[in-house]
Specification:
The protein is α+β, with helices and mostly antiparallel strands. The protein folds into 2 domains: 1-60 and 257-315, no CATH class; 100-244, Alpha-Beta Complex (Adenine-n6-DNA-methyltransferase TaqI, Chain A, domain 2), CATH 3.90.220.20. α2 (31-76) runs antiparallel to α7. The two termini are 47 Å apart. The protein has a 4-stranded antiparallel sheet with strand order 7-14-10-12, with helices on one face. Strands 1-2-3 form a 3-stranded antiparallel sheet, with no helix packed on it. 40% of the residues lie in helices and 20% in strands. The chain has 7 helices and 17 strands.
């Protein structure tokens, strides 16, 4: 430990003690000006906070709308005048005629992942990347932080991911249950842990299976059969295999996927703009406070304007 310029250092981490803080010199404006400053910042930051809340609400609504668009497209199709039939699944209701309802086990194979903690002392081993629950998000993969695992060579064939596998989380927090994405050999070779299922479609496109598992009806099914505990849920491979899949004719599947891709692009653009607005407003709030408390803004005799309307911030 050493002391330099009244600041205490512990190895490479700077530590500011309460004594150091008490030694700091502060500049305060006169009481009347101080009150004006407080009133000004309360008023202006409240306006900015309101705008931020509106943008955050917009982002939430866009996510809900995205979910609704997915669910309607994969359960009712794109033709509002299509004749309907009973799906045979009580909580699913009617689906378009010509669509097939098939259990996942009849349309794909399920591969379980490797468990961790195996004793490999004295055995021939290799080190490979391993996909975890944290890497599998809702509709996309987060591959910035990939962990490696030590395994026996023969286990690579058993647990290796293949191009076109649909990854699905066994559980964790409720929002992680069943979420997944399509694997496109982003890392090769790569295996997956036992809390991530790899589902290998045989008679439908991986993208179709992926979008079905993101629909509200599939999420409802996952929650209904999952083992529940406080804020946690898990689903077994047996229950995953029993997931009802809605399968339109191939040309209709292609049309629905194309439509959804277009809609997702639109939603992504709107969400990006809303997130940018939040960032700009937060920066505006910080800059406003800094300018006010350092005297760069004259707030003496400040009064809020009548019919004061918040000004939108744009890029």
């Amino acid at each position: 430990m050493r002391v330099v310029n009244d600041l205490t250092y512990f190895t490479t981490v700077k530590h500011l003690s309460s004594t150091d803080i008490l030694k700091t010199t502060y500049v305060f404006p006169p009481d009347e000006e101080l009150q004006s400053l407080v009133d000004f910042l309360d008023h202006e930051t409240a306006k900015i906070d309101t705008l931020i809340d509106k943008q955050l609400q917009l982002i939430k609504l866009l996510k809900e709308k995205r979910q609704a668009v997915i669910s309607h497209a994969v359960t009712k199709g794109l033709n509002p005048d299509a004749p309907m039939k009973d799906s045979g699944v009580e909580w699913l209701g009617e689906v378009p005629e010509g669509w097939v309802v098939r259990r996942l086990k009849h349309a794909a194979k399920l591969q379980s992942g490797i468990p961790k903690g195996k004793d490999l002392a004295g055995k021939n081993t290799i080190e490979v990347p391993m996909l975890r629950v944290a890497n599998v998000q809702d509709g996309y993969l987060s591959l910035d932080d990939i962990h490696n695992i030590i395994i026996e060579p023969h286990e690579l064939d058993r647990y290796e991911l293949q191009n076109g596998d649909v990854l699905m989380n066994e559980g964790g927090d409720n929002d992680k249950l069943g979420r997944g994405a399509v694997w496109r050999d982003e890392i090769s070779p790569c295996i997956h842990q036992n809390h991530v299922f790899a589902i290998r479609p045989e008679s439908i496109e991986p993208e179709w299976l992926d979008i079905l598992t993101r629909a509200s009806y599939a999420k409802f099914y996952f929650y209904s059969v999952a083992k529940q505990s406080t804020n946690l849920a898990s689903i077994s491979s047996t229950n995953i295999k029993e997931t009802p899949l809605l399968i339109p004719p191939k040309t209709e599947r292609a049309a629905i996927l194309s439509y959804l891709t277009t809609q997702f692009t639109r939603f992504d653009l709107l969400e990006t703009k809303a997130n940018l607005q939040v960032k700009l407003l937060q920066e505006r709030r910080t800059a406003l406070i800094s300018a006010a408390v350092t005297g760069k803004i004259d707030v003496r005799n400040w009064q809020p304007a009548q019919n004061d309307i918040p000004v939108e911030v744009s890029a």
